[in-house]
Description:
Distance between the termini: 6 Å
Oligomer: single chain
Number of domains: 2
Order of helices and strands: EEHEEHEEEEEEHEEEHEEE
Amino acid sequence: MKRHVKFIKFSPTQNMTILVDGQHLKDDYxxxxxxxxxxxxxxxxxxxxxxxPKQSNADGNLRMAGNEFCGNACMSLAVFxxxxxxxxxxxxxxxxxxxxxxxxxxxxxVKKVANNYRCRISMPLPKKVEPRNxxxxxxxxxxxxxxxxxxxxxxxxxxxxxxxIKETAENIAQSMGEIYPDILIGILLYEEESHxxxxxxxxxxxxxMVWERGCGSGTxxxxxxxxxxxxxxxxxxxxxxxxxxHVFGEHENKTxxxxxxxxxxxxxxxxxxxxxx
Length: 277
């Protein structure tokens, strides 16, 4: 059976994101997402579904295909809503977004700049940030676990990102996926001196493993990690393959108080896709 699916495609720091607009059965979300993400189809790194808000004060509702949280997808939805409302150049729109992966409403500030949008959003706070030794090939790798309600990121501080360490990250992700098959797993290779991040995102239930060109949630986790180490405020531009995302964090009285990210989002396509389920 061939299905017509309305979609919008975004480029938040080249982390190509598709949002599906229209009602579909939740049981079909994963199949729709896998087809749209395929190289021979619309092609993207992740897919979210626009739903009707449940809370009266929410401007939009986003559900990711793996029911995870995604910062870049939240920014994309905020930009789309602002675009639909006719946001003019150099003006701002302030929005609240419901999303999978957190019970918190995500605060979004969207500003139109020339032909794209600058978006700054609040991010869910991790439940804890703690050092963790990872055993791999009879050696221990120093890492930090950034644990959220429904997903976790593992920060691996490295001197240089190369093919060998990327292969190691993929193997670690797969091993962890066997232990945690129902949650998103992020392996964040981080060069601290240059503030360069290579983010690997693995969703076991979708069998999706992607080296993202720009990861909003991973950027927030780097901010949480740095704020934890410094025990204070951080404001850092994190370089990634697709560009830079700015993270702002505040750690006070042994507690992480706030996390925000800011990046550029472009709307690159809108149309109808054809999918056989």
